[in-house]
Automatic annotation (TrEMBL), chain A:
It comes from Champsocephalus esox. GO terms for biological process: GPI anchor biosynthetic process. The keyword Transmembrane helix applies. Pathway: Glycolipid biosynthesis; glycosylphosphatidylinositol-anchor biosynthesis. It is a single-pass membrane protein. InterPro entries: PIG-X/PBN1 (IPR013233), PIGX (IPR040039). It comes from the Eukaryota. One of its GO terms (cellular component) is endoplasmic reticulum membrane. It is found in: Endoplasmic reticulum membrane. This is Phosphatidylinositol-glycan biosynthesis class X protein. The lineage of its organism: Eukaryota, Metazoa, Chordata, Craniata, Vertebrata. It holds the Pfam family PIG-X.
Automatic annotation (TrEMBL), chain B:
Keywords: Endoplasmic reticulum, Glycosyltransferase, GPI-anchor biosynthesis, Membrane, Transferase, Transmembrane, Transmembrane helix. It is an enzyme of class 2 (transferase). GO terms for biological process: GPI anchor biosynthetic process. Pathway: Glycolipid biosynthesis; glycosylphosphatidylinositol-anchor biosynthesis. This is GPI alpha-1,4-mannosyltransferase I, catalytic subunit. Its EC number is 2.4.1.-. It comes from Champsocephalus esox. Belongs to the PIGM family. Pfam families: Mannosyl_trans (PF05007).
Amino acid sequence: MYFVLVSVLACLASCHCFIERDEKNENHCGLLQHWIESSLVSMEIIKKGFHREVETTVELSPDVHSGVRVLLLHRWPRGVYVDPYQLASLSDLSDWKIILDSTIDLEGPAHKTTGFVTFVYPTPDGPTPTLLKVTIPIHGRYHEPSFVAETFTSVEIEPPELLLWTEKCIPLNNVEPHEVMEAPCTHHNSSSCQWVKQQHQQKVKLYSSYSGVDYRVPLDASSQFTVIFSPYFCSA
Amino acid sequence: MERLITKLTEKHVLFTASFVIRLALVAYGDYQDKTMVVKYTDIDYHVFTDAARCITEGQSPYNRSTYRYTPLLAWLLTPNIYLSMVFGKILFIVCDVLSGLLIYKILLLKGLGTEAALRVCSLWLLNPLPIGVSSRGNAESILAALVLGTLLCMEARHLMWGAILYGLSVHMKIYPVTYALPIALSLRTTETRSEDKKGMKSLMRFIRSFFNQELFLFASVAAGVLCMLTALFCYMYGWEFLHETYLYHLTRRDIRHNFSPYFYMLYLTADSGWSQWLGLAAFLPQLILLLVASWAFHSDLSFCCFLHTAIFVSFNKVCTSQYFLWYLCLLPLVIPHLSLSLKQGVGLLILWFAGQGLWLGPAYFLEFEGYNTFLWIWLAGLLFLIINSFILIQIVSHYKPTQTPQRLKVE
C-alpha cells in the first residue's frame, strides 16, 4: 500500500518536473521567438574596386539573455571570394570568428567556381551585447568576358541570415513562422546545433553605399573581340 | 698601404651600410605590420611561412594554397616557426648583400679596378628596388645569389661548383634553364684553325665541338643535382611537387592583369579552344630571340645571361615587378662594357620607370576604384614591352666586348 503511494507520489513529482521544465522551455522558446522577431540586421558594402568590405550590423532586442548565441549565415555568390588566410590573420585582431563550408579557389574566374557559405560567430565567447558589428573583407573575381558591349556585371550579395540559439530552449519547438536549421554550434565546428532562423522579409534593412548593395565588377568589353584579336596575329 | 687601407675601409663601409639599411627596413616593416592597415611585408612571405608551418606539422607545403615554389624554400624557412618570423627576411637580406659581393668579385675577375668595381656594385647594394624587395620578404635574392655564384664559378673556371650552383638555381626557378645554351656554347671547343666553308663538314665540326670534357662534366653535374633534388621531392610530395613547382609555371595562363600585354589576350580567349595553342605560340618570340642572343653573345657569359633574362621577362606571358630583379642583378656586370654616357643611362632608366608608371595608373583604377580600364592596361603593357625592347636594343648597340672593360664614365 505504502509502496503504491510512494510510487504514485514519485510519478506525480516527476510529471510535475517535466511539466515545469516544459513550461520553462516554452517560456524560453517564446522569448527566443520574440528576440528573433525583434532583432534587426543591416548590411553595407564599403570600399570600391575588386577589394571591398561587407559590414553587417545586428541590433538585438535589449532584453536578450546572456546565454544566447548569435550566428550570421552568409550565402555568397560565385562572383566574389574571401581569402581564408586573410581571415585567419584578422580573427586574431577581431572578436568575431568565421568558418567556411568549402575550400576557396583564390584564383579562379567566376564562371569556373561556385558560391560558398560562411558561418560568422560575432561573439564566440562571453556575454552577448545587443549591438554587434562584423566586417568581412571580400574580393571580386574576374568574370567571363562579354561579347556584347557590357562593361560591368553585377554581383548580387544577399544580406546574411540571422540565427539564434539558447541552451534553455532545447528542443526547439513552437517557433513558427521561423525555421529551425542545423548549423555548427561554435566556430570549432565540433558539433551541430539547432538554430532559429529569422524570417527575412519583415526585419531586414539594406543600406546601399554609393554604388549600391549590388557589387559592380568591371568586365572587359570584348564586343571588339575580333578587332583586338586579328591585329595581334597580323603583326606577329 | 694607406690607399689599400682606405680601399678596404670603403669596401667594408659599403657592405656594412647596405646590410644595416636592409636590417633597419626589416625592423621598420615589423613595426608597420603591427601598427598600420597597409602592411609592409609582402603576401608571398606569408605564403612561404604558412608552407613552412605545414612542414613543421608533418604535412606537404603544397597544402598552402598558392605556394608554387620548391619545397626547399619552405624547408629553409622552418626557423620562421621554430625561432622567429623574421628569420626568413634576415636570410633574404644576407643573400642580397652576398649578391653584391659576388658582383664585386666577378667584376674584379673581369679586370675592373677595385674602386670602379665597388662603385658598380653599389648600384645593386644601394638600389632601393632590391632593398625593398628583400626586406619585404621576397625570395628573389636567393636566386640572384645562386645565379651570380654560377657566373663567378664559370668566370674562375671552377666548373664543378658552377654546375652545382646552376643545377640548384634551375631547381629553384625555371628561367635559368635558358642559360644552358650560352654556357654550352662558351664551354665547347673553340676552333683554332680557319674554318672550312663546306656546309656539312663545318656542321659536323660544330656538333663535335660540344663533345668535350668540360662541357660533359658541367652537364652531368648540373643534371645530376637537378635530378637528385627532383627525385627527392617527388618521393616526398609526389605529383603535386612537379605540378606546383614546374608545370604550373610552364602552362600558366594568367588572365589577371599584369605587366605582360599577353594577359588581355589570355583573358579574352580563356574559354576558347585555341587557348592552349596560343599559350604555346607565345613562347615563340621568346625562343627565337633567346637563340639569336645566345649565338651572338655567348663569348661574354654575363652579358649573354643578362640579355637572356631580360628577353625572357619582357616577352613572358606573365610579368610582375619581382621578375625585374632577375635581370637587374646581372646589370652591374654589364654596365662596365657599355659605352652609354651617364645622361643616356639615366634617360633609359627614367623611360623604364615611366613605362611602369603608365601601367600602374590604370591598374590602380581597375583594382581599387572599380573602373573598367582593361584596354588602357593592355595598351600600357604593350608600350612597356616596346620600351623594354628599345632599352635592350640600346644596350646591345652600345656594348663593347673589350678584354679590359672601360671604366665607368662619370660626368
